[in-house]
């Protein structure tokens, strides 16, 4: 439902959904919300506590987690309330603020995914020059640009370039993809190009090249094996994992975003035709669930992150397991370990890693 005028929203009437639809939608969003909050908080804590993860690629992962946390902490609770009430009950000002929040978080999430794909592309294709290309300073600038880009497109409608409107089918406020005015049309078109199509295109190109590099590495290893020369089986495994991870990344991304994108583009270019309300809701819910999926695709599949996560819980348990003040064997081992190798043992990491590890997620994806 469109605005009566810019600056005021017609929040419309309640939707007529069945009890089963409301219950299923609310249950799904509650599970997604819990996954978003728990998963992304764990990412931030593990990266903060694990010095081994203080690297540019993990800083991009933290940026992604912060963006996803905005969805879980601010957007999802109000969305769940609107689903249960079948209408927006918090007023027009909060509705617009809600729309700004989701625009910032989803845009920052997409741009962070784009930055991660570029980072991994350079690591795989230019491993010898990676540390010169991707520095901590360049990473900080890139993250700042990601968030500036996201905030700019989210607040533009507040300054009359584009507008936010109430959408009855989802009972939330969203950018007006089917506006009649020139400013509304140009904003919607630029938003689609700059905040979705461009980063997605960059991601596809980067991951296809990473996939190609991984497959080439795998063929080289297999040729070495066929020629009778011994080859490291770990290299084969890592190359397979790199190719498989790329497939998972692209597959999950399109699963979560394809419906929302198709709906938005349909509204932009075919505004005279209404779409089924269930399809519109499904597109929004799947896009929101991407903030939960990112934790698994980009963090849990990372071996070093898993080690850091495991160490965090093992360390916590060793510190509080004994009430009589005695310490665990792990604590005693850490204290008796020479200082030059203590960090590696405490974190559960090997003292050195082979170059072939760049085809694991930590070093390739």
UniProtKB/TrEMBL annotation:
Location in the cell: Cell membrane
Membrane topology classification: Multi-pass membrane protein
Keyword line: Cell membrane, G-protein coupled receptor, Membrane, Receptor, Transducer, Transmembrane, Transmembrane helix
Residue ranges occupied by any G-protein coupled receptors family 1 profile domain in the UniProt entry: 39-298
Superkingdom of origin: Eukaryota
InterPro entries xrefs: GPCR_Rhodpsn, GPCR_Rhodpsn_7TM
Keyword Protein transport: no
One Pfam family recorded for the sequence: 7tm_1
TM ranges: 22-46, 58-84, 90-118, 139-159, 186-210, 248-270, 282-300
Assigned protein family: Belongs to the G-protein coupled receptor 1 family.
Stated name of the protein: G-protein coupled receptors family 1 profile domain-containing protein
Species: Porites lobata
